[in-house]
Design brief:
The protein is mainly alpha-helical. The chain has helices at 6-26, 29-35, 40-43, 50-74, 83-95, 97-107, 114-135, 143-166, 169-188. This is TetR/AcrR family transcriptional regulator.
């Protein structure tokens, strides 16, 4: 992640809210500049274009959410692995512009930035999967079954993200309860296909 000046960091903090709420196309550089106490031409002293600003914001969003995931798994109580993250996803989505921006960008990427977004989001998911896999340590699960559980866990997170974006917190809660009940049953008996 590139190092930015304090003014550029402030612009990114404002821009993440704009991009999360409005998306790439509808976010206004003028509105971002005004909210940062700048004129639009001054914004270009920090970022060469809207794409450049979007990329800087995306880098920060991925970093913030990876840090959150790391903390979640590090502080997870004993029990079903991954529950801390999946069960806090709805609350995190409401409170974190970084997560709202990250998910909106992954689901609705601006065409010219799609490769950068895909790479960043896939890296985020890969780390989430790796942490879940590590959380399975100490269980007698063969490697093929572990891979299956990791894919299932990432599928649950993906499904929950879709509910948050399209349907809201109530639908997310219902989906979480249903999927997590089935997942807990499978983890309780890893030898049963």
């Amino acid at each position: 992640m590139r190092t930015l000046s304090p003014s550029a960091e402030k612009i990114c903090a404002i821009a993440v809210e704009q991009f999360a709420a409005s998306g790439y196309d509808a976010a206004s550089l003028n509105d971002i500049a005004v909210a940062a106490g700048l004129r639009k031409p001054s914004l270009y002293a920090h970022f060469s274009s809207k794409d450049d600003l979007f990329e800087a914001v995306f880098e920060r969003a991925v970093a913030a959410e990876r840090l959150y995931v790391e903390q979640c798994f590090a502080q997870a109580p004993a029990g079903v692995p991954g529950a801390c993250y999946s069960h806090s996803l709805g609350e995190r989505y409401q409170g974190s512009a970084h997560l709202r921006f990250l998910l909106r960008s992954a689901f609705f990427p601006p065409a010219p930035l799609r490769p950068m977004i895909s790479a960043g989001f896939e890296g985020y998911l890969a780390r989430l999967g790796a942490l879940f896999n590590q959380a399975l340590d100490g269980r007698s699960i063969d490697s093929a079954r572990r891979d299956l559980y990791v894919d299932a866990y990432l599928g649950i997170v993906d499904s929950l993200s879709v509910e948050l974006i399209y349907a809201g917190n109530e639908a997310y809660t219902r989906r979480l309860q249903a999927l997590w009940w089935m997942f807990e049953q499978a983890l309780a008996d890893p030898q049963n296909p």
